[in-house]
Amino acid sequence: MKILLTLIVLLLIVGGVAALYYKYRAKPGVTLTKDEALILETIRENYGEKIIGESITDSNGDKVLRVELGNHDVAEAAINLSSLARKHREEGLTLPVIKMTLP
User: What is the mean pLDDT of the chain?
Assistant: First the structure.
């Protein structure tokens, strides 16, 4: 009985991790640089479970993240990952400052 319960819990955990992976991964065909991925993770860390949907598109060479937010003042935001990554890399804009400037 304990083994069966343990297996059920383990399957639920694996299923939850798989669901989160597929929910938050970039769309096929969009490849992020290391800096863009870092900015994306910073945004996900900032909004956490408030993110109810996201998509990444390529707009004139820049990767733009569109997020739908639940339980937040802003229902939807478009964030240029490439621009923030350049400012982080070239101008020294820190991740805490980026978090503070997010809508």
Answer: 87
